[in-house]
Amino acid sequence: MPTPTSQKESPLDFPWSEPPEPATGIEVAPGVNWVRMPLPFALDHINLWVLEGADGLVLVDSGFESSLTQEIWARLFDSAFSGKRPQRLICTHHHPDHMGLAGWLMETYGIPLSTTQKEWDAYHLWSRLKPDAVTEMMGQFYKRGGVSGDRQEIDLRRRKDMSSRERISPEGFECIRNADEIDIGGQAWTVNIGTGHSPELAALFRVKDKVLISGDQVLPKISPNVSVMPFALDSDPLKDFLESLDHFRQLPSDTLVLPSHKLPFYGLHDRIDALKAHHMERLDDALSACSESVTAAQATKVLFPRALTDHQYFFALGETLAHLNYLWRNKKVSREEDGEGTFLFKRL
């Protein structure tokens, strides 16, 4: 769940004040078109990028799996792109708003998928779990977090329904890696890997005119969700995310950043500074919450005091655990288990 970052951040420059209209595109750089698709969440949109290749269009991210997204893609190809068809799909990472429609696009248009190995693996880990396995894994996650039975039951029921849905799943992929160069329309795009938000997010940077398709790694105004996942309860994704930001700082400060949510902007280095400062503040909040022995669920109420939907709660708990695990790994708090197997965190 994205969270607002500190208002103390340096101002960013937004060349476009409004997104493209539905089923239309805006050219934001030569051969780089911005389209927007709806999402059925509080964060109600995703930005997708259509690059003009030598033999057709290269799509960066697929959008969420829905008949509406399928319809918008078909309208875009027929109208905004004058009948041109996609020749390739590149997915920055495996989350359902980015890779959810990949199988349909591949099957409908006969195109290959490019993504990283860890994102491919993560997609199939989530999509091929049987409902009973989802129930067991999520039950363990909530038990460790100290979540009440009612909240567990609501989320387990929702995730069991999601895991049993029929969908067109992508079959086969072309693996891309950090520092790979991808030729699109005679221009080189370099793969830059981000971690923490997802295992091996592939951002794309065009050196010629300093354009970065950042995925969810660098967003304006909100922070991407950085969460401990149910299958990796001892992980330290916040450490990974902060280290990734240092990698992206090596790109030019006047890079045009094309994020997956909100508006394109200039001010990459300022935004990186603001994101790091935001998470330092959240770590202070988490440490304060641990003055007495607390569960992750209790700390979540401190870090996310506003009312949360059932969908948002899972991400809030995961993000709270990410901050608590970072403190635990850095010996700022202890982590013990009570008699029920619930983690208890306390400031050292």
What order do the helices and strands come in, and which of them pair?
Layout: E1 3-4, E2 26-29, E3 32-38, E4 45-52, E5 57-60, H1 67-80, E6 86-90, H2 96-99, H3 102-109, E7 113-115, H4 117-127, H5 131-145, H6 149-163, E8 174-175, E9 181-184, E10 187-194, E11 201-206, E12 211-215, E13 222-223, H7 237-248, E14 256-259, E15 265-266, H8 268-289, H9 296-303, H10 310-329, E16 333-337, E17 343-347
Parallel strand pairs: 5-6, 6-7, 7-8, 12-14
Antiparallel strand pairs: 1-13, 2-3, 3-4, 4-5, 9-10, 10-11, 11-12, 14-15, 16-17
Helix pairs in contact: 5-6, 7-8, 8-9, 8-10, 9-10
Note down, in words, how this protein is organized.
By secondary structure, this protein is of the alpha+beta class. It has one domain: Ribonuclease Z/Hydroxyacylglutathione hydrolase-like (Metallo-beta-lactamase, Chain A), CATH 3.60.15.10. The chain is built from 10 helices and 17 strands. The protein has helices at residues 67-80, 96-99, 102-109, 117-127, 131-145, 149-163, 237-248, 268-289, 296-303, 310-329, and strands at residues 3-4, 26-29, 32-38, 45-52, 57-60, 86-90, 113-115, 174-175, 181-184, 187-194, 201-206, 211-215, 222-223, 256-259, 265-266, 333-337, 343-347. The protein has a 7-stranded mixed beta sheet with strand order 2-3-4-5-6-7-8. A 6-stranded mixed beta sheet has the order 9-10-11-12-14-15. A hairpin with a 5-residue loop joins β16 (333-337) and β17 (343-347). α5 (131-145) runs antiparallel to α6, α7 (237-248) packs antiparallel against α8 (268-289) and α8 (268-289) packs across α9. The longest helix is centred in the C-terminal third of the chain and has 22 residues, at 268-289. Residues 4-9 have low confidence and may be disordered.
